[in-house]
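TICKET: design request
STATUS: open
ATTACHED STRUCTURE:
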């Protein structure tokens, strides 16, 4: 089965729609465009398929009621706009979906809800229960409380994480652009990229970083990043315009398809790689790097040369080689204050209570990137 056929057959779909598809600066929330999308998703539900909607638009929907001319630059005003706009956005969705006999539920998340493993599991259980009850979850970042330190930054990445949390069969990323182009179609000739099978396919493509109408925070670069996260986890992705949503969900050749490039990982592995927030770093010698990277061995105290940060046992940490490259990410078995006394020592020389692995191989994912500076 081709990846587009997989999308057409997908029983559980995550659909993300951006602010630029639902709102305009002069008038705020555009109910006509919102209802057009709801009609597509309502038909999907009528066909017996499950939908999780990740919707931007809360801040933009709050601009007009507050008399604001553009997206606020300061956090407090943005949170105020989100507080007003989120109510209007979800009520408009609820009314529109009611015409299709679909009940909606609101799920507001901050990055902190997914970077903490217990919260991640809670989000997973909530979404699963809503779907089991026949409810269509509407997910958005909780802009009323999210600070710069705990933001996703855009709902594209949130949608990729939700696709795994919800165990979705497909992900659709919608905006006001038809797909990924090999150039900027606004400034000259550019061709739509039909299929992406690896990052190398886009190596020569310059991606935009801002939305066109000034009400959103994402751009094509964030959509591509999100698409690679989902496709690496075995989920086929289509990036296209909201106007082409129905065709994309039917498996038609529209937008840009990101074909699955990996198997679906366990929830813990996915969380470690994409959603966890490292609390510190464990520095490895060359031998430990080879053991972790080539043999996928557990990390022992003998191969550790240093520790940075403050963390507790079971916190996520980065494992960093002598050259500054992050080799892996894993759940550490010791508090930061315990490790200095263990560094470089063979397991047999340690007291019995300290002979366990520092990071077990089952609690570790390989990463492979260089640290800043």
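STATUS: resolved
RESOLUTION: sequence designed for all positions
ATTACHED SEQUENCE:
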């Amino acid at each position: 089965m081709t990846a587009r056929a997989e999308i057409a057959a997908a029983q559980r779909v995550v659909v993300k729609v951006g602010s630029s598809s639902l709102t305009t600066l002069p008038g705020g929330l555009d109910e006509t465009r919102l209802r057009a999308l709801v009609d597509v998703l309502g038909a999907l539900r009528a066909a017996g398929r499950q939908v999780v909607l990740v919707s931007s638009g809360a801040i933009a929907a709050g601009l007009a009621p507050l008399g604001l001319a553009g997206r606020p630059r300061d956090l407090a005003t943005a949170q105020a706009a989100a507080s007003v706009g989120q109510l209007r956005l979800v009520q408009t969705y609820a009314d529109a979906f009611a015409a299709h006999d679909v009940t909606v539920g609101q799920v507001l998340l901050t990055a902190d809800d997914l970077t903490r493993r217990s919260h991640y599991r809670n989000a997973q259980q909530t979404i699963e229960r809503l779907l089991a009850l026949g409810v269509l979850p509407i997910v958005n970042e909780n802009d009323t409380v999210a600070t710069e330190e705990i933001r996703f930054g855009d709902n594209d990445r949130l949608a990729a994480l939700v696709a795994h949390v919800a165990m979705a069969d497909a992900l659709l990323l919608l905006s006001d652009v038809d797909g990924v182009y090999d150039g900027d179609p606004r400034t000259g000739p550019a061709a739509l990229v039909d299929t992406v099978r690896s990052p190398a396919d886009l190596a020569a493509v310059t991606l935009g970083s801002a939305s066109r109408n000034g009400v959103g925070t994402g751009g094509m670069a964030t959509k591509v990043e999100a698409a690679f996260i989902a496709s690496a986890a075995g989920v086929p992705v289509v990036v296209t315009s909201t106007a082409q949503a129905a065709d994309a969900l039917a498996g038609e050749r529209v937008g840009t398809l990101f074909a699955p490039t990996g198997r679906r990982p366990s929830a813990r592995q996915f969380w470690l790689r994409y959603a966890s927030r490292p609390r510190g770093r464990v520095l490895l010698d060359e031998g430990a790097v080879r053991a972790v990277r080539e043999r996928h061995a557990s990390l022992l105290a003998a191969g550790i040369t240093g520790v940075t940060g403050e963390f507790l046992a079971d916190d996520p940490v980065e494992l960093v080689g002598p050259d500054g490259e992050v080799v892996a990410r894993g759940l550490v078995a010791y508090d930061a204050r315990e490790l200095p006394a263990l560094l470089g020592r063979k397991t047999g020389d340690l007291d019995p209570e300290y002979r366990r692995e520092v990071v077990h191989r089952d609690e570790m994912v390989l990463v492979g990137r260089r640290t800043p500076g």
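CLOSING REMARK: The radius of gyration is 22 Å. The chain has twelve helices and 15 strands.
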